[in-house]
TrEMBL record, chain A:
Catalytic activity: Cleavage of hydrophobic, N-terminal signal or leader sequences from secreted and periplasmic proteins
Keyword Endoplasmic reticulum appears in the UniProt entry: yes
Organism (species): Cyclotella cryptica
Record lineage: Eukaryota, Sar, Stramenopiles, Ochrophyta, Bacillariophyta
Family label: Belongs to the peptidase S26B family.
Keywords of the record: Endoplasmic reticulum, Hydrolase, Membrane, Protease, Signal-anchor, Transmembrane, Transmembrane helix
Main location per the UniProt record: endoplasmic reticulum
Protein name from the UniProt record: Signal peptidase complex catalytic subunit SEC11
GO cellular component term, pick one: signal peptidase complex
Role description: Catalytic component of the signal peptidase complex (SPC) which catalyzes the cleavage of N-terminal signal sequences from nascent proteins as they are translocated into the lumen of the endoplasmic reticulum. Specifically cleaves N-terminal signal peptides that contain a hydrophobic alpha-helix (h-region) shorter than 18-20 amino acids.
BP GO terms, sorted: proteolysis
Source organism, top-level taxon: Eukaryota
Enzyme class label: hydrolase
Automatic annotation (TrEMBL), chain B:
Protein name: Signal peptidase complex subunit 2
Alphabetic keyword roster: Endoplasmic reticulum, Membrane, Transmembrane, Transmembrane helix
Organism in which the protein naturally occurs: Cyclotella cryptica
Gene Ontology biological process terms in this record: signal peptide processing
Coiled coil: none
Amino acid sequence: MIKDMIDKQVIELKKLWANKRMLTFQLLNLAMIVFSALMIWKGLMFVTKVSVLLYWRFSRRIDCLFDDEMGWVDHNGRMSWRKYMLRCMLPLEDRLVSESPVVVVLSGSMEPAFQRGDILFLNNSVEKVDVGDVVVFKIKDRDIPIVHRILKVHQKPDGHVELLTKGDNNRVDDRGLYAPGQLWLEREDILGKAVGTLRYVGMVTIALNDYPVLKYVLVGMMGLFVLTSKEG
Amino acid sequence: MAKKNQKDDDESVEEEEELELLQVDVGDIMKVKQILDETVAGTISEKNEDLSSHGGKVKIEEDHRHDNMKLALMFTACCFAAMAQFGLKTEFPHDSNRWLLGLCCAVYFCISGILQLIMTFVDKDCIMVTKPLRDEAMIKLVKGSGNKEMDKYGIRVRTQFPRFSEFYTVILEFEGKENSEFVKETWSVGKFFDVDGFFDEEGLAIEIEELFQRFERGDFNKKESSDEAKTAKKSKKDSVKKD
């Protein structure tokens, strides 16, 4: 039966190849479908003013290091040489960087509110962030964005705002994670406030990245289907 | 011996033809309509020498302008989308790139919307459009047979195949003419598909050729297409076939 299906698809493709106009139309149709999804994504980025450099972790062998973000730096702001070497040794495919208004929760520091594999929707067009808000922030000169909750907000008379964050599941606040000498975060360090969540959906993406072949198989099948079905 | 060989040849030709018969899942309505439409479009094309009652002397050319316009629109939309996706750095909060991104997205969605509107309200059920006849000799032949306007207007080929209905309708009318005369014919799909889904391409082609030749003769359907007229035409056709 699978052989029949493949044969049928091959016949359709041959027919398509013979008719160049139809082939162009179907290719453009396929491109428009893909671009529609991408433009919705970009449109969301435009509306939420978010650009998040997202560090996706797929290598299981260093999972244990990420489970406790406090382990990256000690209280003096120094990173142990072992962790630094490991981070530099990460192959490029392990450090896929994307910009999106949606992030996947990577670690367990926000349990039980968010688990690894949850998807968070971000909005950066909010002016003020308050105590209790879950935010994504990046420390200056570091690549890794962090998803934690705001613990304290200091508002100075001149309007300047200082923030302190902490992971729900961590024992102490994030001062150990900040840059050396930094005690507070500023509003500019905040990349977005979490406004919605989808449980576990990010696991699909994590699976697709753990097994890259799945990605190509899925996209290939979808592309073939769109090319050979002419419902457009 | 020679006769046997010829019989073998005929059989093998027949076998070949059978093998080439397209088979579809008759439950897949979209696929069935697609194949019927493709056959209709293929029959009404310049490659078909049996289309006109004047044989290969009258050739019908397909008009690709509308298709080309749609393709151009799709290509433009894809260019804007590609620029938004790959051409812009989106490291906000620098505002300049953000507005450009918004513009590209907006243009993409506008063009996409326009294309949808065109496909819904302009194309509707049309599957192809032909150009008016240009060749003097062809025009003379066709005018002689009855249809006086094939040099002024092209032909618009429309097909209808409602969901869950077994009846397939083909309509030929003048493109660009208000309240155009038309020829219309309806068949049950059972006439062209058997239980296993094998498609009688030749049979449909013959019906379409007859329909086109009716159009050529100027033998148009009455404007108020009542059921009686349809049934009368059908029974007339059946009786002509029996003869």
